[in-house]
Design brief:
Layout (H helix, E strand, L loop, with lengths): L6 E2 L20 E2 L22 H14 L32 E2 L9 E2 L5 E3 L39 H8 L2 E4 L9 H7 L33 H22 L2 E10 L4 E5 L15 E6 L5 H14 L10 E11 L4 E5 L8 E6 L2 E2 L4 H16 L6 H6 L8 E2 L18 H12 L7 E4 L6 H14 L8 E5 L2 H11 L8 E3 L31 H6 L2 E5 L4 H5 L4 H15 L14 E4 L7 H11 L13 E6 L9 H4 L16 H6 L2 H4 L19 E2 L3 E3 L2 E2 L4 H11 L5 E2 L6 H4 L14 E5 L5 E2 L13 E2 L1 H19 L3 H5 L13 E4 L3 H13 L6 E3 L9 E7 L14 H8 L8 H8 L2 E9 L1 H4 L5 H12 L3 E3 L3 E3 L2 E2 L2 E2 L6 H18 L25 E2 L2 E2 L3 H27 L6 E3 L5
Protein name: RNA helicase
Organism: Lithohypha guttulata
InterPro entries: DNA2/NAM7-like, DNA2/NAM7-like_C, DNA2/NAM7_AAA_11, P-loop_NTPase, SF1_C_Upf1
């Protein structure tokens, strides 16, 4: 009987629960049996042909996708075999958990007959366990096809290739990359050995998940609390690395004299996987075997496993990475022997020990120091568990002026107050936290603090350790500090695994390269002479490994002084690192922060301190936090549970009563200090409130949602060329450069069979990408006032929009790749396109946010099925407040969001509901109809009050309209906003182009109670229009 024809349906009519074949087209293929009845996947898995079950399923996949014949419509009674593209079972027992340890003697192996070690990897699932469970669906129902296939499944890999990785092998080592010999470094400095607190590599935890037993973080069980979570995170990293493994790829000769070879590693450009020089890759060469024989041989081997797997040479090369060409996604490795160029092989990417050893050892050292504080000076306890009695009391009001000579004259009042507080150091021996929302100048404040601490009077010469979680953030700090410090006073410590090509040219004069042209520790005298050492949190472990911590150095000096000059040993001033400053602190896990904290921690045993180091942290707990493998992988079973690890030390400290419940905290409305409040614990924190980045309309939603409505826009006026773009939604008054484009074109799944190895992030939306491309091209054409040639080669005038001034972002990696493809095809190579996480800490004149997910569940009762799947895999921007905040606060002059309002609000996500309501109230929507469900709260229909920035913008527009009716001239530079003079000065409303400088006290002076009440009455009218009590859904239609 001939196969049925494929049934094509328009995208908007496709049942989302149908089985859909991955296609690069916007339509999906709906599979039905000839009689219209439902067909189940398992009917096609049973086969009487030869070969393994996986290969049968692979051969049958074409029949499943192209249609079914009448004979396969019968209900199958055979046991259910693995699905054709089902995932390898994600259990801890079946996960390869191999760790690459730099010391070959620690690698567990058994000798073979010829003396070479035989490696026995842990088992990988053979696919014999069905990845899904459940009863066989009833095929008598006349319904659509419901697939059990998992679009987020791992790539399908033939069993014989997986068998190669499961087989025992003879290990062939390769020459290791030269690196710092920390033991020799300590011996040459006569540093007292301080290794009792550093966990030996042999005692590191197995890369296997454990059960979380300790739920509460306390000083007495601090080590156990974090080690249980770190062990699960390491297991998740090992599993993630396992998913990045390569099968049947070519390895090509790069330099036959040094046995160097090149391997293409997809994703290495974006650190998926993260591979650095010095890492070890396990290379397993494959023999050329005829396909007709491999299935039978693999089946026979799987039953016995007494020999080497068929198709495998039996050798595992421990290849050492000597270079990484990220742009070309190529890795250069060195082997211990020769291979024929072009040899096919499997590549296993183990978890390198040097990537997790520092955090494990830092936690152990922290527990040792916490135990020591029970009988000594409680410095570390006050840093990790500060209490109000650790602070100092303020009994008088602070003076309104500052007595410092500023290196940066552009600092605002809040920044100066923070710097003054740190230099005065009168808040107690506790962390000083600088809370800086986006664009408020956190890094500028840290840089000024560093320079002022170097000038502040002190009993000892200041030596500062300045850190950040990422190399990019550290390089930014160094570049800013280099404008004031010479190379002998400022040093950039890089890991030996960092590529020279990844270090900016202006940073290199402040670094040190060893004889092997690798970054390393400089000579002892050079490092100790530096007033400021800048490094990443993880690379600070190099100082600990070399014995250059406060504790190790103090022990060394004490031993000598007590033998030579006992009286000098009791001074109490033996302290090298006088302060630790941590920028972007909210992006680091607490164990990562412990690494530099352990470097500056003072000696508290057998020594009485009279001087303790300071710790200053700057960050924003409402932006993206630490990036965890346990959050990135799909783990619905809770195997890789790491509660608390996603919370940075910065965020945890701000949740403690000392900071959270302080009368001057941001959550209390930033009330001014009065005499009636004295005495009071001197605030060990600063709140930066002035935003120098964004237009107030862009800033309004985030200010109200995350920062207690306290942000004050300070940026100069927006570009008139951008504001005059005719595509901005029609709005009464001045142009607000914010747009929500309602788009309902359905998303689809790209490359289920050829994805990124994990299947996650494979969501793509072709029509959304075309909208983003058209929007950017049209904006460029308007601003640059020219043809496509002018767009591709814009001039450098201020009003012209450069390609690098535009960011296009999406939370889904496949969509990012597709956006890059279509933008490059148009010659727009310099448009910055990437995932949301890539742009934290960055800014751009124009930002286009592609939300990508536009599909709900099956009609007529829409569900959140697909949104919940995204949330389970830590994907998307729905119910992700930190991602939402980062996406909304990157833009300086224009923000364009593309998405489906119904999907974005389907879970009643407060962030998206607030933003959509902001756009609806102010006529900032375009595209299709806005039929979305209003959010409910316990009191019924919610009528959200407008934020202060929105109210000020609306008030300014109203005043401009009144002046226009009266015939009063308008200043063209303010884009329609009035020039306040005469009676308008009574309001004292300060307009900077379209920027408004405003806070609560100014608001009361500007408008007064009567005007404020009038605006609130207008809000209520608008709220009734949006939330009609007689209808469940509100449809804005074209009126928006």
């Amino acid at each position: 009987m001939p196969k049925p024809k494929q049934q094509w349906l328009p995208a908007e009519k496709v049942d989302p629960d149908f089985f859909q074949r991955p296609s690069k087209k916007s339509r999906a293929i709906v599979i039905k049996s000839p009689d219209g009845k439902a067909v189940t996947a398992q009917k096609h898995c049973a086969s009487s042909d030869g070969g393994t079950p996986d290969e049968k399923a692979s051969n049958d996949l074409g029949r499943i996708q192209s249609g079914l014949d009448e004979a396969t419509a019968r209900r199958s009674t055979a046991p259910r075999p693995p699905l054709p593209i089902g995932p390898v079972a994600k259990t801890v027992a079946s996960t390869r958990t191999r760790v690459a340890i730099e010391n070959p003697s620690l690698h567990q192996s058994t000798p073979s007959a010829n003396g070479l070690p035989i490696t026995h990897p842990t088992g990988l699932s053979t696919g014999n366990t069905p990845p899904h469970s459940g009863q066989t669906p009833n095929t008598n129902r006349v319904t659509a096809f419901h697939s059990n296939l998992d679009i987020h499944a791992l790539n399908y890999v033939q069993y014989w290739l997986r068998a190669v990785n499961e087989s025992a092998a003879v290990s062939i080592p390769a020459p290791f990359l030269p690196r710092v010999d920390f033991s020799n470094y300590r011996r040459t400095l006569v540093v007292v050995e301080d290794t009792q607190d550093r966990t030996p590599l042999a005692d590191l935890p197995p890369q296997q998940a454990c059960t979380i037993q300790i739920q509460e973080l306390q000083s007495t069980s601090y080590e156990q609390y974090w080690q249980q979570r770190l062990q699960n995170e390491y297991a998740a990293q090992a599993m993630q690395n396992d998913s990045f493994g390569l099968f049947n790829v070519g390895i090509y000769s790069h330099d036959h004299l040094t046995n160097s070879y090149s391997i293409k590693v997809p994703g290495v450009r974006e650190s998926t996987p993260r591979i650095d020089i010095g890492d070890i890759l396990y290379i397993r060469p494959i023999l050329p075997v005829h396909p007709s024989m491999i299935a039978r041989l693999s089946k026979e081997w799987s039953s016995q496993r007494s020999s080497v797997a068929p198709g495998f040479t039996g050798h595992e090369h421990h290849a050492v990475v000597w270079a990484v060409l990220r742009r070309d996604e190529t890795v250069i490795v060195r082997l211990g022997t020769n291979l024929i160029s072009g040899t096919k092989c499997n590549v296993i990417i183990p978890l390198s020990a040097h990537k997790f050893v520092p955090t494990w050892q830092a936690v152990s050292l922290a527990q040792v120091n916490l135990n020591a504080t029970l009988s000594g000076n409680p410095w570390l306890t006050s840093m990790l568990f500060p209490e109000p009695d650790h602070g100092t009391l303020q009994t008088s009001l602070s003076k309104g002026s500052f007595d410092l000579e500023w290196f940066d004259s552009t600092l605002n009042f809040e920044q100066k107050r923070a710097v003054q507080a740190v230099t005065d150091a009168d808040y107690g021996s506790i962390p000083y936290l600088i809370f800086g929302p986006p664009g408020t100048g956190k890094t500028k404040t840290i840089v000024e603090t560093v320079l002022q601490l170097l000038q502040a009077p002190s009993r000892v010469a200041p030596h500062l350790l300045v850190c950040a979680p990422s190399d990019a953030a550290v390089d930014t700090l160094l570049v800013r500090l280099s404008a004031h410090l010479l190379p002998h006073d400022l040093f950039r410590l890089n890991s030996w695994t960092r590529l020279n090509s990844e270090v900016p040219g202006e940073v290199r004069p402040y670094c040190y390269l060893d004889a092997h042209n690798l970054y390393s520790l400089p000579p002892f005298e050079r490092l100790m002479a530096a007033k400021v050492v800048v490094t990443s949190c993880r690379d600070a472990d190099m100082l600990a490994a070399a014995g250059l911590t406060n504790q190790a150095l103090t022990r060394t000096v004490l031993r000598m002084l007590r033998a030579i000059a006992p009286a000098a040993a009791d001074s109490g001033d033996l302290l090298h690192w006088t302060a630790l400053l941590l920028d972007e602190a909210a992006q680091a896990t607490e164990p990562e922060t412990l690494i530099p904290l352990g470097v500056v921690a003072p000696l508290e045993v057998d020594y009485e301190l009279t001087l303790t180091p300071q710790m200053i942290m700057a960050g924003d707990e409402y932006q993206l936090g630490p990036r965890l493998a346990s959050a990135a992988i799909s783990d619905t079973s809770g195997t890789f549970n790491t509660p608390g690890l996603e919370t940075s030390l910065f965020q945890r400290l701000f949740s403690r009563p000392l900071y959270k419940d302080h009368p001057l905290s941001r959550t209390r409305g930033l009330r001014p200090l009065t005499k009636a409040m004295l005495p009071i614990v001197r605030p060990p924190f600063a709140n930066l409130i002035r935003n120098y980045r964004s237009h107030p309309a862009i800033l309004s939603t985030s200010s109200a949602l995350f920062y207690s409505d306290t942000l004050i826009p300070e940026r100069p006026r927006a570009s008139s060329a951008i504001l005059s773009w005719p595509q901005w939604p029609k709005h009464s008054g001045s142009v607000w450069p914010v747009m929500f484009y309602q788009h309902t074109g359905l998303d689809s799944v790209e490359s289920v069979l050829e994805g990124n190895g994990t299947g996650s992030g494979s969501l793509i939306n072709h029509s959304e990408a075309q909208i983003a491309l058209g929007t950017v091209v049209d904006l460029l054409r308007h601003v640059n006032r020219g043809s496509l040639a002018a767009i591709l080669n814009p001039q450098s005038r201020n009003d012209h929009l450069q390609h690098e001034d535009i960011i296009v972002m999406s939370p889904f990696r496949a969509q990012v790749n597709y956006l890059r493809q279509i933008f490059r095809e148009k010659g727009l190579y310099d448009i910055r396109i990437g995932p949301l996480e890539a742009f934290q800490g960055l800014e751009s004149r124009v930002v286009v946010l592609c939300t990508t997910r536009t599909r709900l569940g099956q009609a007529p009762h829409p569900t959140v099925k697909y949104v919940n799947e995204d949330k389970a895999r830590n994907l998307g921007v729905i119910d992700e407040p930190k991602r939402f905040n980062v996406a909304m606060t990157r833009a300086k002059e224009a923000l364009i969001a593309i998405g489906n309002a119904e999907v974005l609000s389907c879970t009643r996500d407060n962030c998206w509901v607030s933003f959509l309501r902001f756009c609806l109230r102010n006529g900032l929507c375009c595209g299709g109809k806005m039929g979305w469900v209003a959010r409910k709260d316990n009191a019924g229909r919610a009528k959200e009050r407008m934020g202060k920035l929105e109210r000020a913008l609306r008030y300014a527009d109203a005043q401009a309209a009144e002046r226009e009716e009266d015939g009063t001239p308008l200043d063209a530079r303010t884009n329609g906003n009035v020039v306040h003079e005469g009676q308008q000065q009574n309001f004292k409303l300060k307009l900077r182009g379209t920027m408004i400088d405003l806070d609560e006290e100014m608001w009361r002076m500007q408008i007064g109670e009567q005007e404020e009440e009038k605006i609130r009455e207008e809000e209520d009218v608008g709220g009734d229009e949006i939330y009609d009590d007689d209808q469940e859904d509100w449809d804005g239609g074209d009126d928006t």
